[in-house]
């Protein structure tokens, strides 16, 4: 059996994750501020607006400063002839094995931010769920998609 080194996400995925988090959390913070302004104008309670503003500010810091680096550091995957392995987590490590015979199809996609940084996402679809490898260079994602597709067709189920 050939030993495989786990593969990691591309470092540019940190930038994409941060930009995405800034956009989403900025909209949520703006909505919270809008609620506070409306509460002032119409005499509503300020409490929901302040709670939301605090939570979204915390979310902003968390998802802009810490989560993107953690995703790249603590997520890895390995493609073997008979299975895929996904591993994530720091304190609680989650390891998932997906037998190639369970793979139904493989998809490749990327949104506008990912395309700007030449990144893509590979989705591995089984009957039970979809596993994602997001944050790969486009050419690597295409290679991985082809590799998984080829291996999923070749592997024969046990009888």
From TrEMBL:
Give the matching InterPro entries. YdbS-like_PH (IPR005182)
Q: Which UniProt keywords apply?
A: Membrane, Transmembrane, Transmembrane helix
Pfam families membership: bPH_2
Q: Which domain of life is it from?
A: Bacteria
TM spans (from-to): 21-43, 49-67
- Tell me which residues make up the YdbS-like PH domain: 73-148
PANTHER family linked to this entry: UPF0699 TRANSMEMBRANE PROTEIN YDBS, UPF0699 TRANSMEMBRANE PROTEIN YDBT
Q: What is this protein called?
A: Membrane-flanked domain protein
Native species: Paenibacillus mucilaginosus (strain KNP414)
